[in-house]
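Subject: Sanity check before I submit

Could someone independently write out the structure tokens for this chain? I want to compare against mine line by line before I put it in a report. The sequence has 312 residues.
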Amino acid sequence: MHSISPTFLLLMVITPLVTTSAADNTNLVYKGCAQQTLQDPNGVYSSALSAIFGTLIQQSSKAKFFKTVSGSGQATISGLFQCRGDLTNLECYNCVSRLPILMDKLCGKTVAARLQFLGCYMLYEVAGFTQISGMELLYKTCGSSNNNNGGGNGFEERRDAAFASLESGIESSNGNGGFYSTNYESLYVLGQCQGDLGASDCGECVKNAVQRAEVECGSSVSGQIYLHKCFMSYSYYPNGIPNPKKSSSASGSSYSSSSSSSYYSPSSSSSSETETNTGKTVAIILGGAAGVGFIVIFVLFVKNSAKKHDDY
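---
Independent answer below. Compare away.
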């Protein structure tokens, strides 16, 4: 077996939010694809991976988190999925069941891959793939400044109080799969840890994510921070929180985004470097996503046309 490179190439795409919660849950946030392709002349890896996907989809109808292993020896593959804690079993299943096909389309056959939707994520790794810290930053996105969105004076103090409430809630939410969400003075915050993370490690992970949000998103009225083992998001709604599930996606239309340039290799860059890398990333992802986007737009166009025809 070829040696396995620890480096992931992380590609991001933020898709427009639509009106139904089911569609929100399956909006693509980011993808991580290992740079090394899976050498599989005998099909043993493909067989193990198919078994992984089948098991994860089956379990998603009755659990929010599940981890499994398939194959043996060097052909062993581990995989897991997790759904956001506020999803129903049906919503979880509908979210997870979409991941394998899109993962194959976006990443192809690689030694490891991770795909994150708003409502769920899935990952798999071939045995020997180098592990990373649970605190590793995978992806971040920050909304516009509160100066442009009516946050007013004292916004950061209210935001920090909401973050403190989140940290406290996460520490006491171990019975809820490490998921916690709360409202605080027009701010909606939520956090979740990977399902097999202990209570202490979970609290530490979310605390780290909150600190990153404070530093990297600054005065932004919304943000999402995805670490390897947990994530958190927050949104400010001056006119009241419309729907807790939808608010977890924050205000996507005003986002700027950045990330480390590789999945398992941290890197720091200036704002200009980040903008350049993001531009390259979008160019790469468009080729893979354009077909899917065209189909979605075409279907919506046909539906709208049919509706107008019925109205007449």
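---
OP: Matches mine. For the report I'm noting this point. The first strand starts at residue 8 and ends at 12.
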